[in-house]
Amino acid sequence: MVAAPEDLLRARGLHHEYEGSPALLDVCVGVREGEILCVTGPRGCGKSTLLGCLSGRLVPARGEVWFDGVPLHTLPVPARERLRRDRFGWIGSEPHLLPELTVWENAALPLLLSGAGRRRARRTACEWLERLDVGYCARSRPGALLQAQRQRVAIARALAHSPAVVFADEPTAPLHQADRAQVLRTLTTAARSHGITVVLASHDARVAGVADRAVTLVDGRRVGPDAPPPTDTPVRPGPEGRAACSLSA
Ligand SMILES: Nc1ncnc2c1ncn2[C@@H]1O[C@H](COP(=O)(O)OP(=O)(O)OP(=O)(O)O)[C@@H](O)[C@H]1O
């Protein structure tokens, strides 16, 4: 398999386990810049664990994760946290908002933390809230919102600082059936128009349907016709500091 130099994010030989139970086994995956990739598979197959490793929330027990030439798996914690805050957005299946902040302050948080002025952060956050049809809630506290509205705010927060990559783990789980397609469409349209790479995880084939490509996990392993062969050799950084591995997912 030929190396994919255009991969913005790539992982090789990922292993992870919880209290001795394996959750990921030798998983390789590459994600190109601007691509929408869906990680799919049955419940408990390792989708969330894979997104955790790719996004630097989890450090894999073994294996490597490279983002834009940076080795996330060996990055010191402060640098990894900074990179996650500035370059990544996260949407979970539950909208974890800060109850003491208003809706717009929640959506603006990554911008404010990276040093943007309050006025610009507010304007940008409110634009995203409008796109997600919750602009009218901007001054409310999260506690006054329905769960589906809170999830829209969480999506606005993930996009407002124009991250390079948004990770979305079952992002439509708290939404009613009728809202799901619309929110997914907003997320993917916004990502495409802003050149944001998206890594989605879902067991729902309809969610996978909005992606450019899907990779499937079963029992912690990648399966399917395009799954790379198992790895048994370590990845060596190439001359430019990038991993010399072949991962065109
Ligand atoms: N914090 C944890 N402690 C112990 N076991 C865990 C933990 N998180 C996940 N697991 C186990 O690891 C395996 C993979 O879990 P993971 O959540 O990554 O799968 P998933 O495909 O995202 O599942 P789901 O679709 O239900 O969210 C499962 O067997 C799960 O029970």
TrEMBL record:
<comment type="similarity">
    <text>Belongs to the ABC transporter superfamily.</text>
</comment>
<dbReference type="Pfam" id="PF00005">
    <property type="entry name" value="ABC_tran"/>
</dbReference>
<protein>
    <submittedName>
        <fullName>Putative ABC transport system ATP-binding protein</fullName>
    </submittedName>
</protein>
<feature type="region of interest" description="Disordered">
    <location>
        <begin position="220"/>
        <end position="249"/>
    </location>
</feature>
<dbReference type="InterPro" id="IPR015854">
    <property type="entry name" value="ABC_transpr_LolD-like"/>
</dbReference>
<keyword id="KW-0547">Nucleotide-binding</keyword>
<feature type="domain" description="ABC transporter">
    <location>
        <begin position="9"/>
        <end position="244"/>
    </location>
</feature>
<dbReference type="InterPro" id="IPR003593">
    <property type="entry name" value="AAA+_ATPase"/>
</dbReference>
<dbReference type="InterPro" id="IPR027417">
    <property type="entry name" value="P-loop_NTPase"/>
</dbReference>
<dbReference type="GO" id="GO:0005524">
    <property type="term" value="F:ATP binding"/>
</dbReference>
<dbReference type="GO" id="GO:0016887">
    <property type="term" value="F:ATP hydrolysis activity"/>
</dbReference>
<dbReference type="GO" id="GO:0022857">
    <property type="term" value="F:transmembrane transporter activity"/>
</dbReference>
<dbReference type="GO" id="GO:0005886">
    <property type="term" value="C:plasma membrane"/>
</dbReference>
<keyword id="KW-0067">ATP-binding</keyword>
<dbReference type="InterPro" id="IPR003439">
    <property type="entry name" value="ABC_transporter-like_ATP-bd"/>
</dbReference>
